[in-house]
Amino acid sequence: MNIRNSKYSEALERYHKKIADAAVEDMVLNMGPQHPSTHGVLRLELITDGEIVKEVIPHIGYLHRCFEKHAESLTYQQTIPFTDRMDYLASMNNSHAWVMGVERMLGIDKDIPKRIEYIRVLVCELNRIASHLIAIGTYGIDIGAFTPFLWCFRDREHIMGMLEWASGSRMLYNYIWVGGLFYDLPVGFEERCREFVDYFKPKMVELNRLLTDNQIFISRTANVGVLPLDVAINYGCSGPVLRGSGLKYDLRRIDNYSAYPELDFEIPIGTGKMGTTGDCWDRYKVRVDEVEESLKIISQCLDRLQKELKRTPEFDPRAKLPRKLTPKPQDYYMRAEGTKGELGFYFIHDSNRTEIPFRVKSRGPSFCNLSVLEELGKGVLIADLIATIGSLDFVLGEVDR
Amino acid sequence: MSFDEIKLLLTDKFGDSIITGEERTGMQPALLIEADRIADVCLELRNNPRTYFDFLSCLSGVDYGVEAGRFGVVYHLSSIPYNLQLVLKISKPNDRDLEELPSFPSITSVYRASDWHEREAYDMLGIYFEGHPDLRRLLMPDDWEGFPLRKDYANAEYYKGIKID
Questions:
Q1: Count of structural domains within chain A
Q2: pTM recorded for the entire structure
Q3: ipTM of predicted complex
Q4: Is the pLDDT of residue A1 over 60?
Q5: How much is the pLDDT for A2?
Q6: Which of A114, A120, A313, A388 has the fewest CB atoms nearer than 10 Å to its CB?
């Protein structure tokens, strides 16, 4: 390091000393970055005493792709594909949040046609189901249940297929644009989507019988990794992690953005049915229940999209695209409910003439949800730590950005 | 509780000098706070039963550019019980000398959420947080040189003797 001021390297030296000391008394165990249960490239340094984890030191940044630096040199429209790559399991939700933020800065958020709003909500909720299916399936694998994983991926594949039909891409869609959409839904999408909902509902019942109510699964997850509500709030947890601790807090209802105020859905929370409120099972169960709620939202969107907001030949999803994306100089913090929690974008725009933001900060929900692991990992068994990691359901693409 | 009431609450508690200005032009008005007392302000806003700003939504370090010569931190607080949002801003002039990084008080004692956010701001912009328990780099490697999100950052050509394309 070329900085000589020792004040700035104190923390690093403290850390090196801690690891060196721990290596004498206890054992230092590296979990990841290739460990399958760390869900990507997360590296955890565990200071262990036998089977007991004394301390967890997460190391992140292996998937850092300079999102914020990119956003400072590209226009608002050009950055949408980069937002897709943050939480790559729920690309639609990311670009929806980004696009809404830009639209509000431009002052055109009230002029978006209803049909576009409903299509956006429809694809976001489809993507939310796909993301939660991965969370549920991989959580099963972490615990040792292989079958649910295959079932979840089989059902997720239908969603991927539909979204590919709409946008042309399987995972990274670039479908929602500022002021509109890339294309209207393809002809027959609504019917196929309805078929999927009918097909998928009984599959969730099966999945619940296989995993949710499975006694082995409950024994591994109930009363494990209990996250009290005050700790969750103080650590900035949001989404299913916060709701699993028993707080009804969902930005879709709090902020009432897009078409959500017109839709009817419940906010599932953890109740401690199998153990303590805020344990791994509760967080898992919140996601399962959210899939059901998303199905409800999808059905309502389809009803409206097939009746009063029907496709017409003159409907053009690009009609409202602004010619120039030049907001007035201002700061704006946009928050929306991504699949993992509060997804925020903080824009600083400083000039009337440019389409490029001065500074963008993205607040990934996984980032904050993961930081609580240091707290949850104190004094637990290594096997329970795996269960806790899985229940937090983070995506490293969003943690590192 | 409105923006003006919060402002009044803060000036009653800490005196008029605590608020150095305000920005009302945008959709989200912001309070400019005296930089050295941000931790006290956050603690008061979190614990006061009339505000209960218990949730730190976002903490962003900002480099205001080479000409401005200022660094700042922007706090987005939100209150779950009252469904309020508040923006606080602090900033300090700095001449970009790497031996004297801009330095602000850490608010980790108030919000644990700020732990990683502050580490990220340190990593990316070289903003030092006084009193942070573990201020190491977060996303970049520990031996990385320079602070990538600064406006005057020149891309590194080599890392450990390996050419970066």
A1: 2
A2: 0.90
A3: 0.90
A4: no
A5: 64
A6: A313
**Confidence band (pLDDT; 50, 70, 90) for A202?**
very high
Same domain, A43 and A72: no
Q: Does A55 touch chain B (CB under 8 A)?
A: no
* Residue B54 to chain A, least CA–CA distance (Å): 7
> What digits encode the pLDDT tens for the residues B42-87?
898 888 888 889 999 999 999 988 888 889 999 999 999 888 889 9
What is the span of the domain harbouring residue A222? 67-400
C-alpha–C-alpha distance, residues B164 and B89, integer Å: 36
**pLDDT: which is higher, A287 or B26:** A287
The beta-carbon neighbor of B55 closest among A12, A233, A346 is A233
A344 three-state secondary structure: strand
Are the beta carbons of B116 and A2 separated by less than 8 Å?
A: no
A59 part of a folded domain: no
- By the 10 Å C-beta count (0-12 exposed, 13-18 middle, 19+ buried), B89 is classed as buried
Please list the helix, strand and coil fractions of chain A in percent, rounded to the nearest 5, in that order. 50, 10, 35
Answer yes or no: do B76 and A8 touch at CB < 8 A: no
Domains in chain B, CATH or no CATH each: 3-163 (3.30.460.80)
User: Are A105 and A241 found together in one domain?
Assistant: yes
Neighbours of B163 (CB within 10 A): 7
Cα→Cα distances A162→A157, A158, A334, B35, Å: 9, 6, 28, 51
3-state secondary structure of A381: strand
Same domain? For A37 and A154 the reply is no
Beginning with the edge strand found earlier in the chain, give each strand of the sheet holding B84-93 in spatial order.
B19-23, B30-33, B84-93, B70-79, B55-63
CB contact under 8 A, B132 and A5: no
Buried b (16+ CB within 10 A) or exposed e, A245-277: bbbebbbbebbebbbbeebebebbbbebebbbb
A71 and A126 inside one domain: yes
